[in-house]
Design brief:
alpha/beta, Purple Acid Phosphatase, chain A, domain 2, 6-stranded mixed sheet, about 35% helix, globular
Length: about 240
């Protein structure tokens, strides 16, 4: 059921341009099963309710923690050719940085990197020497299909449409959206989450898991911890209304 974003008559509701609809999907984290189900729901919804301009926007963190990172990237790298917009998350940044700097293996491992490595056929020990880390990074580079690498390096950090700003983690308050640092767009939490003022646009984000979608006047969080909860959220924006598939 559609519902308006704000109930206050004094505050203008955020809107998308006429004839536009956005399907925004939260953090997947290796749950290709949930992603496939969500795309099936989107396809059915688009067939039932045609519209001139329908966009799918993925909010990042496709890999790590869950069991099927390889399959998620395989699915998304094909989906983007149909117009899906996939934003970069901090976990994709981890993988790309590991290829350049193998010494970040332990921080990445603690954030679910072992599951991603396993999905590419690599099962390293958790206690690796610097030489072993270098060998592992080389092995991952060899196992990573070219179209996966191309997909990952091309991920944009944000996307704007109408009164909405789509991003993985959030934005730094007091900084214009056009001047945000990549580090904040990928990693920020408390300073962003606590802020109650305007960001200039309503920020649609993931990164910080919540038990159900969190809708506030200045931001919407749709990371419902899919890898652990089994709940991958898809928010549908049209005109000044929002619903969830």
């Amino acid at each position: 059921m559609w519902r308006r974003f704000r109930k206050s008559a004094e505050v203008k509701s955020p809107k998308l341009p006429a004839g536009s609809r956005v399907y925004a999907i939260g953090d997947v984290h290796g749950r290709v099963d949930l992603l496939q189900e969500t795309f099936a729901k989107i396809d059915s919804h688009r067939d039932a309710y045609p519209i001139a301009n329908a966009l799918e926007i993925m909010l990042g963190d496709y890999i790590d923690r869950g069991p099927s990172s390889f399959d998620v990237i395989e699915l998304l790298s094909g989906r983007v050719r149909g117009g899906t917009i996939c934003l970069k998350g901090n976990h994709e940044s981890f993988l790309l940085e590991f290829l350049k700097d193998p010494t970040i293996f332990n921080p990445w491992r603690r954030c679910g990197g072992l599951e991603t490595l396993a999905s590419y056929g690599l099962e390293p020990s958790v206690d690796l020497s610097p030489e072993d880390q270098e060998s592992l990074a080389a092995a991952l580079a060899e196992r990573l299909p070219a179209h996966h690498h191309n997909f990952l390096v091309a991920l944009p950090l944000s996307f704007t449409l109408g009164d909405y700003f789509f991003v993985h983690a959030g934005v730094r308050p007091g900084v214009a959206l056009s001047n945000q640092r990549a580090e904040d767009l990928l990693w920020i939490r408390e300073e962003f989450l606590r802020y109650e003022g305007s960001f200039g646009k309503v920020v649609v984000h993931g990164h910080t898991p919540v038990s159900e979608p969190e809708i506030r006047n200045n931001r919407i969080n749709i990371d419902t911890g899919a890898y652990a909860s089994g709940n991958l959220t898809c928010a549908v924006f049209e005109d000044d209304q929002i619903q969830f598939l």
